[in-house]
Amino acid sequence: MRLPKSTSKLKQYFPMIREREDIKQEICENPKLLEKYREWDEEQQEEFLDYCTGVKGVKILYDAFFKEIMNPENTPERLNELLSLLLGQSVTIKRVLPGDSTRLADEQSLLIMDILVELSDTSLANVSVQKIGYRFPGQRSACYSSDLLLRQYKRVKGEKKKAFSYKDIKSVYTIVFFETSIKEFHEYPQNYIHKFKQQSDTGLELELLQKYVFIPLDIFRGIYHNDGKSNGKNSANRCWNKTEAWLTFLSTDEPEIIIELISQYPEFKEMYEEIYVMCQNVEKVMEMFSKELIQLDRNTVQYMIDEMQDTIDIQKEELEAKQETIDTQKEELETARRQLQEMAEKLRQLEKAEK
Description:
6-stranded mixed sheet
């Protein structure tokens, strides 16, 4: 039996979830909130009410939610565990680093969330989220990584001064979660964690420091949340390992799957509770939701710009190729014209000689 929108399955597990009419009444009684609410279209209004009331699960990768739940300064053990699972080694966060003005500013509009941490061995890890997969992720991530490596180099050299050695420079990790990944990832539909590092073609091993982890969450959802069809698991008795549990936490807003998750891994229930406590502050959550919508619009615009630029580049190449063909044809015509003139001149000379 389908539950009406006034109640939700999740409210059974999180009693602090507010009722729909209660939230709507608070919005209507506050002119500032009502004005903001009316700026959204009907679909956006429903989405906001659905996740505040538990009809749908909250979007964990919303910037404010993720930074609150995964804040390395308050609960370092959470990000420690997630990074340890993704990097395949024990990770302990030493400190959170502030944003850097040298960061590629024109790329910031693509980022929903961006956390930079220093690990216990002084290596750096940059964790970011892309709502819409950007074009050329390899090239862009290489630029981010180089920027990060240079930042570490300047800091360590400044601290060590004359005692500085290049062995003091540690790995930099660029970790990107894609909510919606680009077509290149979908050519590997059974893979949802891609790790990259530089290596030689001869077997020679050198520590080249720059490493990458790409996680297309849409592909993960297709494998593990499609009623178990993609991986042969029955949805009634799914059993996730800890990495799969974390990716489920980050990627799903389906109440049934959230209930499965907290049943298997109760530690995630505490995280959801923290978010639903946040949701009790309607004004704060509405502001957060508005920022997410604006950021999504920016992402969409940037994606469209990239797509349009790609089309323009292709058309330019085609025009240049056509122009080359035209230029070649012009040259051939000019050559043929000269040959005809030469032949006509020879013919006139022959006619003269005959006279």
